[in-house]
Amino acid sequence: MSRVGTHQQRLARLQMNSASFSAARIHRACRALSGALLLAALTGSAVLSAQEMDTATSERQIRADAGAGEQAFRKAISGIESTHGAYAAALSEQLLSLGLVLQSRGQHDEAVDLFKRGVHLARINDGLYSEQQIPLLQGQIASHIALGNYVAADERQHYMYRVQIRSMDNGQSLTMAFMQQANWQHNAYSLGLGPQGYTRIMNMWDLYRLALNDIIAREGETSPNLLPPLHGMLEAQYLISGYRWQDHSDSSGGDLGARQDLNRFSTYRAQSYQKGSAVITAIHDIELQREGEQGVATVQALIMLGDWQLWHDQRDAAWQTYQGALTELAERDDAQLQMDHLLGEPVALPNIAGVRPLPPAVDTAEANILLEFDVSARGRVVNLERLDENEAIDGKAHRLMRKLRKTKFRPRFEAGQPTETEKLVKAFNIE
Fold it and tell me: Residue 72 is part of which domain span?
């Protein structure tokens, strides 16, 4: 399609001249122990059905098996230490297994200590950046997160990334390491870890781009495997362009490195609209090759581009893009159904996982805040009213309402035109 240009040229603009390790070992071990996570407090029931009795019996067996597994691993560790000493190479594997058992039972403090010891032994026996450390580090990170020790998790994540890029050759494992680290940078940004939040989202963009380049080098420029890093790059661009300085403590002071990061971020901001558009167009081209012009995913990519344009107040471009999406849908046998599904109601922007501006709506029976509002044909919230009378959460309700007023919406489309929606009711459960 002429409006999207040459795929190869656009992808070339996204590439950078140049990192989750495949956690299959952990997943296999966790699957073997996952029953320990299913224990339920059924013993307080006065009367159990036959099915519930069977479930309780199974859970007691699971508990017994997990306990037996713990004892077996402890015995194995003791035996290795007695025979080969406290620094034996075989200990790391047993420490990993025991740590996973304890982790699955919520004993995270002891699990962290075991994983830490396993990492230390792997460094001694296999080298400072040995691949054998990675499942142990992943275990450490998971338990730190479970304990709320996010700063410790961040430090371990940073170290694990160094191990990954030094121990892995180019391939899917390295690509997944880039992806996993990019996702962690997003999480760390959301948690407010570190003084300069904008560095996290710059890192997020750079890491997803490394993953993209790695896949292109292996599989070419039209591989569907490019879609996950491309979607991650789009998340990063929404965060970059929507970054609010007053929401973060980002004073660089006299720190030269911080000032350089700040200057780099200013460049990222200036290029954000162009880069986000290029990312979405690359997504569209891949979906176009897979599904054709009328494919739902292809049309969704066009709508995604319209959303990006509207979010940046490029209204004329957005309306034109939405019209292009409607034109493609009109050729389908289920045209009206898909139009109603994709463009039949207002949608808050950004409309991508990870950066949606509002909490998820819930059924009214589960809600503690109930709001009614109109969305204009230009995508603005007007006539916002609160319908519930839950005074205990007035502060939270007012904050949500302020956020809703500032949120841009894609309006619903009717007969091919953006249309006002009146008395839209949304229910939320805010803790």
Answer: 20-167
